[in-house]
Amino acid sequence: MIRAFTCPVTWIPRSFPIVGGKSFFELFVAFFFLVLFLALGFSDSLTAGSIVNFMSLVLVSLSIRNNVIAAFFGLTFEFAIFWHKALGCLLLLLVLVHGIGQGYRLTGVVMAVAMGLMALLYLVSRATKDNFNLFYFGHITLYLVLIIPAFLHGAVVLGASVFLWLLDVLIRYVFTKKTVKADFSILS
């Protein structure tokens, strides 16, 4: 039964954007997020902001290496990153819905611009296929720029997600193998 949900849907070719080569489970989850977005996002702009606040923790959770969500559902890191990108696009739309409905506060504008620049960095890195370091470090820098305005804006969960990210960085630092210096000499 689980295999039926996790194997790729063969009638959608891999070359088809976003959904190509995905499993039934992934398409179901994507459809669920789309319905959630349409039902809650457009009904009330304050609700859209609340969804962004809480789903941002899931967004950050999907992007870290020590990923509890991926471990629980048996997803590979690549699939977790796919969901990070999909959820990021959805949250960017919800940010725009929230901003239009609630009016513009400086903290909200800073966060929306930073999220838009993250998406733009992704598109530029995909178009050139050789700017991954620019994308990666720019993405992290913009994420860190989001933290202070998030607390000031009331998006405390988004602000608190930095602790999850820092915990992941700490775990990777502590548990990575340390390099050992060795002396060598040429033998006959």
- Which whole number gives the mean pLDDT? 78
What structural class do helix, strand and pairing data support? mainly alpha
Q: What is the first-to-last residue Cα distance?
A: 61 Å
How would a crystallographer describe the biggest sheet? Answer: none
Number of strands: 0
Overall outline: globular
Q: Indicate the low-confidence ranges by residue numbers.
A: none
Walk me through the structure.
The protein has 188 residues and is mainly alpha-helical. Helix content is 74%, strand content 0%. It has helices spanning 2-6, 24-41, 45-63, 68-73, 77-102, 106-128, 132-153, 156-175.
List the helices and strands and how they pair.
Blueprint: H1 2-6, H2 24-41, H3 45-63, H4 68-73, H5 77-102, H6 106-128, H7 132-153, H8 156-175
Can I get a quick summary?
The protein is an all-alpha fold and 188 residues long.
Keywords:
188 residues; single chain; mainly alpha; 8 helices; 74% helix
